[in-house]
């Protein structure tokens, strides 16, 4: 490996580590996230040009910040801003090495950037893309590949998001009072969506996209450090840690899906489970009334504590889903509760609950509704009906691995019913 290649890889690593703090610090000064990212990118270009010859500096983050601040000063001078502003941002730049910022300042800036990137004024897709770009350090191409969308689409989302933040004059600050709860929910939703897309990809050839799971987990941990007194933050961390613990057991040798009850629990990551359970304890200690993420964490904790699938406390899980539906009503939550009830009280009890959801508009194209119904029908020996449900579910999913699994289940149900294979 040549020295130039090694340096380039070092720059990529530094960027992943430092970019969020760099952009956050610049955004506080510029009061413009778009301008802050452009300055950070300018600093990155300078590093790509200079470090292969000069070597990676001892404090690369400070070097990048110093370069970016100098570019900011140049901009203010070109725009004939007040000399006071120039002096304010340019303070301490006469020396080559930028002083280390206080840890509290870094944390405050990052928290401001989190709330700005996830502002409700932006669409969900824009919030996800901007968060991965600014806080994750992912390139536009990396985000596009992760979500299986064209790169120009992602680029357009990011550009529009930054323009919207500027046009709406969204303040670069941490919300206070009553607004904090609403805005925090928006932040947690973005991280949750990123993880879910990695955990069960909605489309494509892969069952999972581990890079998205890892990025969401990292963001949730950072958020817990920045907002240690928020129970739902710890609830989200607990949920993601425990879910991520199953990653190695969720796919077979060829990448085929392995469902929860069929997984080898010896392959679950016990360290992640311990971390998740500890985060759940922190959430529970901070509130008497668990929110939706902490309740979901409590549900997956029931699975994590069970040494075998047979030892799972399904009655407790059904109760928790009932509580979750009270704080966050959703037909999807009810569908999950039906599964838990079927495991606790038998498939007939679960099927009765599922059939009540048949007319829900939100579930009209949700492939897991016919999938769950097919599973319950199969357990009741109604294999011909189960075959129809599995075939219907296969037609609704956009994930190739999941479609294959569902068609295999439809074929097995057809065989038991004495029917020809679906589509045969």
Automatic annotation (TrEMBL):
Gene3D superfamilies: 1.10.1740.10, Winged helix-like DNA-binding domain superfamily/Winged helix DNA-binding domain. SUPFAM superfamilies: Sigma2 domain of RNA polymerase sigma factors, Sigma3 and sigma4 domains of RNA polymerase sigma factors. Residues 21-81 form the RNA polymerase sigma-70 region domain. Residues 183-283 form the DUF6596 domain. Keywords: DNA-binding, Sigma factor, Transcription, Transcription regulation. Residues 116-165 form the RNA polymerase sigma factor 70 region 4 type domain. One of its GO terms (biological process) is response to stress. Pfam families: DUF6596 (PF20239), Sigma70_r2 (PF04542), Sigma70_r4_2 (PF08281). One of its GO terms (molecular function) is DNA binding. Belongs to the sigma-70 factor family. ECF subfamily. This is RNA polymerase sigma factor.
């Amino acid at each position: 490996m040549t020295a130039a290649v090694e340096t380039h890889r070092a720059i990529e690593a530094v960027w992943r580590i430092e970019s969020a703090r760099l952009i956050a610090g610049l955004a506080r000064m510029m009061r413009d996230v778009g301008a802050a990212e452009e300055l950070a990118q300018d600093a990155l270009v300078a590093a790509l040009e200079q470090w292969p010859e000069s070597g990676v500096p001892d404090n690369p983050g400070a070097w990048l910040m110093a370069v970016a601040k100098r570019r900011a000063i140049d901009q203010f001078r070109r725009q004939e801003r007040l000399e006071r502003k120039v002096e304010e941002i340019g303070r301490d730049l006469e020396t080559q090495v930028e002083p280390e910022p206080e840890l509290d300042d870094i944390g405050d800036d990052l928290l401001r950037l989190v709330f700005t990137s996830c502002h409700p004024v932006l669409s969900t897709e824009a919030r996800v893309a901007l968060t991965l770009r600014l806080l994750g350090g992912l390139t536009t191409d990396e985000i596009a590949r992760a979500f299986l969308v064209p790169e120009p689409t992602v680029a357009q989302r990011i550009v529009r998001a930054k323009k919207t933040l500027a046009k709406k004059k969204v303040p670069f600050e941490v919300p206070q009072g009553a607004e904090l709860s609403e805005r925090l929910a928006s932040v947690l939703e973005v991280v949750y969506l990123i993880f879910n897309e990695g955990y069960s990809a909605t489309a494509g050839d892969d069952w999972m996209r581990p890079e998205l799971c890892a990025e969401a987990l990292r963001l949730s941990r950072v958020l817990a450090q920045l907002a240690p007194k928020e129970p739902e933050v710890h609830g989200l961390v607990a949920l993601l840690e425990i879910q991520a613990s199953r990653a190695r057991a969720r796919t077979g040798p060829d990448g085929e899906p392995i469902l929860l009850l069929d997984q080898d629990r010896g392959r679950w990551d016990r360290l992640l489970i311990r971390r998740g359970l500890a985060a759940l304890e922190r959430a529970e200690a901070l509130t008497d009334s668990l929110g939706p993420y902490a309740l979901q964490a409590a549900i997956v904790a029931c699975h994590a504590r069970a040494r075998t699938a047979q030892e799972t406390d399904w009655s407790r899980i059904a109760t928790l889903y009932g509580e979750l539906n009270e704080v966050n009503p959703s037909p999807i939550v009810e569908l999950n509760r039906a599964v838990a009830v079927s495991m606790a009280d038998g498939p007939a009890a679960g099927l009765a609950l599922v059939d009540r959801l048949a007319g829900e508009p939100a579930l009209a194209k949700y492939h897991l509704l016919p999938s769950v119904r097919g599973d319950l029908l199969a357990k009741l020996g109604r294999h011909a009906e189960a075959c129809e449900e599995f075939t219907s579910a296969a037609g609704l999913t956009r994930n190739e691995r999941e479609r294959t699994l569902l068609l295999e289940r439809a074929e097995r149900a057809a065989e038991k019913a004495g029917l020809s294979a679906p589509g045969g």
